[in-house]
Amino acid sequence: MSILAILNRVAQTTKKTEKEAILKENAGNETLQRVFYLAYQPTINFFIKKIPPVMPKSGAGSIFDEEEFTLDHALQNLVEVISKRKLTGHAAQQYVGNLLGQLSADDAEVLQRVIGRDLRVDCGASTANKVWKGLILDVPYMRCSLPKEVNLKAFPWAQGLFSQLKSDGSFTNVNYFADGGVEFMTRNGNVYPNDEFGEVIEAVQRVPAQAHQFHGELLVLGPDGNILERAEGNGILNKLAKGGKLPEGHKIKFVAWDMIPLDQAVPKGKYEVPYRVRLATLENLGLTGAIEVVETRVVHSIREAYEHYQEMLALGLEGTILKHPDAIWEDTTSKKQVKFKLDVDLDLECVGFTEGNGRRAETFGAMKLRSSDGLLTVNCSGFKKDDLARINENREDYIGRIMTIRSNAMTKVRKDGTRSLFLPRFIEERNDKMDADSLEKVMLQFESAVTDLEALLA
Question: Which domains, and CATH codes, for the chain?
Answer without folding.
Answer: 3-131 (no CATH), 143-339 (3.30.470.30), 344-457 (2.40.50.140)
